[in-house]
Structure formats: structure tokens, C-alpha cells
Amino acid sequence: MIQFPTLIKKFCDALLEYDPETKKLYWYHSERKPDLCNRWSDHEEIYEMYRERYVCRDDLDIWERFLSPENIERFAQGNTAEEHFYIRFENMGRGLEWHEISMEQMEDSHVLIGSRDVREIYQSAAITKAILPELDYVCFIDIETGSYVLYYPDANKTVFSQNTADDYDTVIDAFNRKHVIPEEAQTLTQNMQIGHVRQMLNDKNEYILYATFKKEEDLLYKKLCFAYADATRKKLVLIRTDISSVVNERKLREKEERKRVAYLENMPVACVSAEVLLDPDGAPYDFRITYSNQAYAKLVGVEVPELLKRNYYEIFPDMDRKRLPYYYDTAYNGTPHVLSWDVEEKNRHMLIHAFQIEKGHFGSVLVDTTEEYFLTKELQRSREEMQRILETTTDLIFEYHVETKRFNISRIGMDEVQKSLSEEGLIETLVQKGYLEPSCAPVLEQAFSRMKKGESRLSVNLKARIRKEEGWSWYRLNLFEFQTEYMHERKTFGYLQNINQDMLRQEELEKRAQTDPLTRVLNTSEGKRKIKQLLES
Q1: Is the pLDDT of residue 283 over 90?
Q2: Contact indicator for 338, 350 with CB cutoff of 8 Å
């Protein structure tokens, strides 16, 4: 038997010696079977017991290949000095444990067998690899002596090297004065002293510091995390990581955020965000402004700090609440809305574009549409006035689409005529229904033909009637072309005016000019014209 130091046993969860002559095992140490320690046991019984109770069913072949009575005997008498393999053991119903088994030949052909749980080792390695890109070092500090052990990544960042030193507090002071920016160095050193760290860890699990380090022309930002290394609280662990990328990214975000806020603050358009408040039944009763730019404050006539203090309807108790349900729908259901707001005391009209910021909150941009609003109203009034004028001065209004060759009639007294007809259909219908004197049909056809050839404005006189019971009257058809603003379609607008009185008056004047007022006989000039016309024909 060999006397193994306690320290070696701590690195193993089982340590045994196999005697090939007696086929027995001596147990130096075992965390799984402490009752077997310091005595010999039959190897075959132990082999079967582990095989039945502890070895993972999927690893039985591995167990047999190395530790069956035949194979361990072969190893003891063979030329292989050492062997090791991995296997899984059942952990009393709590899952599987990975173990590394080592076998080594001794001088008298005895075999030394050691087992250790490698889960914690692999877990530590995985954690180390995960934090390697940012990890500067891990430091263990002895509280009583002030000595420390520093583990740091090597150049390849694959393993940890070790450096030991004494007097942690003195070294930290010198290091910080050399590498930390002057405005932080002294305070950081005081906060890193062992006594101060212990005081800060009295009621918390970790103590975190941040520091700015100098590196040539650059600044590096570090995070230092202190904690107790074990339950005895006799050792501290310090982990320093580089957070420069995080800090720089945060600074960039803050800079961009300041830009956005400044942009919103100076925008001429009013912007505001608010939280919709609910009563115990879940119904909206008010909202509280969480942000307002200067343009909105100026619009409502209240300073920004005052707007942020109280609920909206407390500040404006007389304000109409009809928009509140829409704000609720936006804030809680995410439905955007465009709402109208007449600011009567300022004679302004606003459009409120509401959108969801997060659950229960909405933002809104208020666009001043006063000029467009009043222009639209004025245009509507102008249209109504024009409609009244047309109704009193015209008998027929229509639009003619050049491309489709169809008429859209908006006002007509001819009840038997359809409101939408083709060019041929309109002329034919007017003649057949007795509304257009047949001899005037070619005149109307020629007018439309001239418009299609490029004339933009013309007038023709026609004989027609609005009601069949009336006699034929003279009408002037006025046509002019225009192009729509958005679709760029060519259209012809036309209207019909009754000019019968003017035509009868003109005929009377012409008749008077051609006859003698006393005898009613053609005068000399008209008589000569008639005689010449007859002779020529």
C-alpha cells in the first residue's frame, strides 16, 4: 500500500489499487462508497456492483473494455504504462456525471486506478472560453495576508498563466496611478482596498466598480467585479473585463438620442407623447403627457414642465373628450388614427397623427393645416356659388371624355335621356326623342370632330328644346377642353344656353335692314343682292 497525501485525494473522487495476484482492490479514497475505504474488496464483485448500479447503460461496453476481470488482468501484465477513458455514472437519480478514469501500471504489476468528475472542469473551461474576448484577468486575494494570485490570458488567449505577488493594496495603488486617468485614480484605489471591498460585501453578493484606463491616445473602459471566493470569506475574487465596446456603443446611442431630442425640440411641428390612464373598470378617463416639445407647449399655451406635472384634463378641464377613445385605441390596440382638432381660440385647424409607442402609450404629431383647411372651405363655397350660377344661366351641363368618347351629364331637363352616353348615342338619342332638331345633328357632330382634332374652345348654335311640348328654340353650345391635374386626362366641359330671344331679335333686325319701313318691300341693296343670287344660280 502507498501513502497518498490528502491533497492528491482531493483531486480524485475515487483512488484505488488493483493487486493482480489476489484479484482484489484496495480503496484509498471514494466519495461514492466511503464505507469501502482503507480495506480490500473483491474486484469482480465491485465490477459487477458498479455495472449494475452506477454505469450508464449506453457505456457498458466501455466499462467492460477497460475494467472487466479479463481486461484489467491483461493491462496489468501488458506493455501499456497508462490508459484513460471517459464514462458516465448515474448520480442517484439526479442525472448522469461524466468521469475521467485513469489506469497506471506500478512497479510490482499493481494497477493504480483514479477517477474524477470532469463536469465542473469542462463547465469552467466553457465559461472561460465564453468570456475570453473581454476578460483581462481573474485575481484571488488572501484577506489575511494581503497576497494575491493573478490569472491572465496569454498572447493566444487559449490558456491562463499565473502570477503571484504580495501586498495587493500597495500594488493596486501604484498600478492605478500609472494606468488610470488622473481624475479617477485616487478614488478607484480607495474603493479597491481590501477593507473597503469587505465593507461593501457585507450585505451584497458582489461589488462592482467602473474605471477609465489610459492606453497611448485611447481610453479603455473596464468593469471590476469583487466577490467572496468561498463560504469561509477568507478570499476575494476580482474579475476585470473590458467593456470599451459597450461603453462606446452606449455613448454613440446617447449622442444619437441627444440629436433626436434636439431635433424634436426645435421642430416647428408639435410633437407629444402620453400615457392613457384607466379607471378601475379599465375604461380611459384621462391621459398624462410624458414628453412635449416647445412647439406643442406654444400651441396649447402651457410651459413644458407644467404639462408634465398633471393629467391633461386637469390642465384643460373644458377640452372636448371626443378624441380620448381614439387615443385609447391607439395606445392599447396599436391602431393609428388621424384626428381633426379646431383650435378655436387661435383660429387654427390641426390634424393629429396618433401612433402607438408601447402598450398604454401613444405618440402624436400635430400638423397645422389651417391654410389648407380654409382654402378647402373657400373652394367648396366657390363651387357651390358656381353651381348656383350655372343652374340659373344654363340649361345643360356635361363633361365629354375624349379618350372614352362618353358624356357625363350633371344637369338636364330631358328626363328621358340617360346620364351617361357615348358620342353617337347622345346625338341619336336627342334626335329620336325629339329634343334636337334633325337638321342640327351634323352641326353637333362637326363640333365634336373639331374638338377631337385639337380645337380647345368653340361655340355652335343649335335648334333644340328641353321639353317636348315646347316649340324649337335656339341654343348656344359652348365647349372648352381641359386636362385633369392628377390623371392628366383630356376632358371637354360643355354647357347649353338658351339664346332664342337673342336670335329672334337678330332676325328682326336683319329683316328691318332688308325692307323699306313704309312699304315693307325689299330695299334697293337687298333687291340687287337677291336678283344677283337668282341670276347666278
Answers
A1: yes
A2: no
